[in-house]
Amino acid sequence: MKVYKDRISTYQEIADKLSAKDRRVSTFRFLLAVAIILLTYQYFQRGDEILLVAVAFIVIAFSLLLQKHKTIRWENELAKTKGTINKDELSYFDNGSLPFENGEEFIDSGHDYSYDLDFFGAHSLFQHLNRTGTVTGKRILAKSLLHILPKAGIIKNQEAVQELKDQLEWRQEFLALTKLKPDSEESVADLISWSQKKPASVKGPLNIFSFLSPFLVLTTFCIYLFTPIEITGRISLLLMLVNLGVIAVQLKSIKNELVSTTRIEHILKQYSLLLKKIESTSFKSDQLNQLQKRLIENNHEASDSIHHLSLLFGRLEHVQNIFAGSALNAIFLYHIHVLRGLSHWRKLYGSHVKDWLEVIGEFEKFSSLANFSFNNVEFTFPEINDSNQILFEDLGHPLIQSEKSVTNSISFQPKSFFILTGSNMSGKSTFLRTLGINMVLAGIGAPVYASKASISPLPVLVSMRLSDSLSDSESYFYAEVKRLKYIMTQLEKQPCFVLLDEILRGTNSDDKRNGTIEVIKKMAVKQVFGGIATHDLEVCKIADEYPDTLINRRFEVEINDDELVFDYKLREGVCENKSASFIMKKMGVI
Predict the structure, then answer these.
(1) Which residue among 75, 96, 117 closes a domain?
(2) Residue 286 belongs to some domain of the structure
């Protein structure tokens, strides 16, 4: 897409300018450092106090330039990351590349539909959708694909996705912020575990002592400097030794807070930026506004609270430096005050940390779905009804590029269940997956590959690619029967959208035919929507017995110039042409 090419050029230009600026600032910093050394040398040679003043001003300028240099490098990394994001999107369009995590850890062979429809793993729906950068965001996106929402939830999600769809800059900056310093399962677990621990409070006498002792240390030391009373110097030194003793007693509590703080500290800075991005944006949709409101607690914004926590952890880290830590603690009881700050923070906000991470993850989920909508302008957001009506016009598989995709229209009123026949490779399984994936996308508030769609949010139940459960000593056949039993039980409770592909493959042909017919008969008198694919044309005759529920549909194949031709167009009726023998002869098998 042109928009991604243009953005790649834009961010490359920005990164080049920032790199040049970085080099200039580095050179200037070097010159200032040289000037500080030379002027300091001259001061000791000549004793001119003007030189000392000049050194002080240059040191201040050097410090300011150091902060400026950090900002430039951060902006440069952000620009480069945005450039990479757009390169990934362009690669996705140009050659079907999928440089995104595939969510294989979420594969669950027992789920109602995700395993059968290949929702996770290589080239999965999740991998096509995934534009998350945090551990929580990835988990929330995966979880959203596993549950069909009620009507109200779908409509709210649609509004949120549509709002973010055209906010390309916002979405990409949000994603870039997650990628600058990615979190990990361990760092997130450490943060949540820390936030939920009981605060280590600074109590009673120690609390009073932590303020009184630094005051006495500084007071006695100043008296020692400006008066001839030498004993005050000894008192000051004694107090500092006492302070170090107090710190030694509290060292266990301090080190308990230090566990994994290095991992936590760097992700807190990223979380703070992500939360600030959410807080500072004005949203229109109810769903996004509700998420935004969850970030205000005790009249404080979550971003400021998280930023403050990162500063506290940074201060606590000074205890690792024996010289700085000893000096700060001897004079100020520094880490007692940090410990108090952490305790106070955890009392106020500890119970909200997990929720704040969830809000970031929810925005990543919506941003991923919005990116999916932005990349597929031909997709539509379906109308949502509560009258069990399902209609798709020009329905296509959402993971197949539009120029290669063949679309079909289908509705499930008045007849709600189809028996699908067709020769090998004619497209039966692909069509079932097309229906299943689009039903789920519609059910989570995402767009579907159709020119027009209207759906009722029904549970989706699929039996297409069960595997032997060897660890449970189950055969393929028994696993399939268990799945069919589960589907029948769900149909007793409520209407469901059911997709079956060549069921009972684990038994002989007669049992398979008879079993399939009985399964369809039982479903036909329940609240079923969907379809079943079969090679057995005898099964199709059952449609005559249930004219109000069942209908036959087919995919055909033609042989032209000794070649098979598939048009993948859905037709009414029973399949007339076969291809298995032709293909085997063509390949020299028979």
Answers:
(1) 96
(2) yes
pLDDT at residue 263 in the model: 67
Q: Which of 425, 443, 392, 376 is nearest to 158 (CA)?
A: 443
Give the per-residue SS3 of 177-203.
HHHHCCCCHHHHHHHHHHHHCCCCCCC
Q: Is residue 334 part of a domain?
A: yes
At 265-275, the pLDDT tens digits run: 778 999 999 99
Residues 6 or more apart whose CB falls under 8 angstroms from that of 200 comprise 253, 256, 257, 339, 342, 343
Q: Specify the pTM.
A: 0.90
Q: What is the mean pLDDT of residues 496-514?
A: 88
Q: Quick one: 530 and 580 in the same domain? A: yes
Instruction: Please tell me the predicted confidence (pLDDT) of residue 564.
Output: 77
In a domain, 265, yes or no: yes
Rounded CA separation 432/532 (Å): 8
Q: Contact at 8 Å (CB) between 387 and 187?
A: no
- Angle at the Cα of 438 from the Cα atoms of 437 and 443, rounded to 5 degrees: 100
Domain of 46, in residue numbers: 1-96
CA distance 174 to 281: 12
pLDDT category, 467, cuts 50, 70, 90? low
Q: pLDDT (tens digit, 9 = 90+) per residue, 68-91?
A: 999 999 999 999 999 999 999 999
3-state secondary structure of 460: strand
Q: In what order do the strands lie in the sheet with 391-395?
A: 383-384, 452-455, 391-395, 408-411
Q: What CATH number is attached to the domain comprising 537?
A: 3.40.50.300
301 and 343 part of one domain: yes
CB 571 within 8 A of CB 420: no
- 470: confidence class by pLDDT, cuts 50, 70, 90: very low
Say how many domains are in the chain. 3
